[in-house]
Specification:
By secondary structure, this protein is mainly beta. It has a domain at 46-163. It is built from 3 helices and 16 strands. The chain has helices at 2-11, 23-32, 146-157; strands at 37-39, 46-54, 57-68, 71-76, 79-84, 87-94, 96-97, 102-105, 108-113, 123-126, 129-136, 160-163, 169-174, 180-187, 189-198, 201-211. It is globular and about 65 Å long. The two termini are 42 Å apart.
Length: 214
């Protein structure tokens, strides 16, 4: 009975306008919402997630390792770059390629033990922190930690993008087998500028949102 009551109430009261987005909200949604993206390469990117532990319990302090074209990249907790009030529309993180046993990211030095190889890294040390493996698709021993990985997705990664040094976007998606995996993605819409002429002078008119075909 409740759906019927709610439908009638919405139809005959001003409450119905609460379901309408403003123009700005609509534009922000199609520009930043992960639902308005598509997967470029359906082959998932191999990854590992490391986290610090508090009394053997995983914390929200984590780093991600990616194996992209046989090269190892690291990304830290993505930071909010677009918000509407308290709602975080988009998080972003940069990826850094590993070439030595240590790397400095925003003043924090990360050391890889025993070596900076994707398949051989057992722990990551930064200042007084020790990051240990939490989850990997290809490690059955870490399967029991999938619950904690899902929590990190819900809080930090579902609306996050990692940017490679070449400018490619990597984000987490649900694959056909129902598991969360990372893929290279692109956005369906992007902001463009239109060259227009007015009173004999050329100028740029922004605010045009171009659809990108899959």
């Amino acid at each position: 009975m409740y759906p019927i009551y709610f439908t009638i109430k919405t139809a005959f009261t001003n409450y119905g306008t609460g379901h309408i987005f403003t123009r700005q909200e609509s534009l922000e949604k199609i520009l930043y919402d992960p639902n308005y993206t598509y997967v470029v390469d359906k082959k998932p990117i191999n990854f590992k997630i490391f986290t610090t532990y508090d009394n053997f319990k995983p914390t929200e302090d984590f780093v991600l390792l990616f194996n992209i074209n046989n090269e190892t990249f690291i990304g830290t907790v993505p930071v909010p770059v677009k918000q509407r009030g308290r709602e975080i529309l988009l998080r972003e993180g940069k990826l850094y390629k590993l070439s030595t046993s240590k790397i400095n990211i925003n003043g924090n030095v990360y050391e890889f033990i025993p070596e900076p190889s994707f398949s051989k890294i057992e722990k990551i040390i930064s200042t007084n922190k020790i990051y240990k493996p939490l989850y990997s698709l290809n490690d059955n021993n870490l399967e029991k930690s999938s619950y904690y990985f899902t929590l990190l997705i819900q809080k930090f990664l579902a609306n996050a993008e990692y940017i490679t040094p070449e400018g490619k976007i990597i984000s987490v998606k649900v694959d056909e087998d129902g598991k969360w995996k990372f893929f290279t993605i692109e956005r369906l819409y992007r902001l463009t500028y239109e060259d227009v002429e007015e009173n004999g002078q050329k100028d740029y008119k922004n605010g045009n949102y171009k659809h990108k075909n899959k």
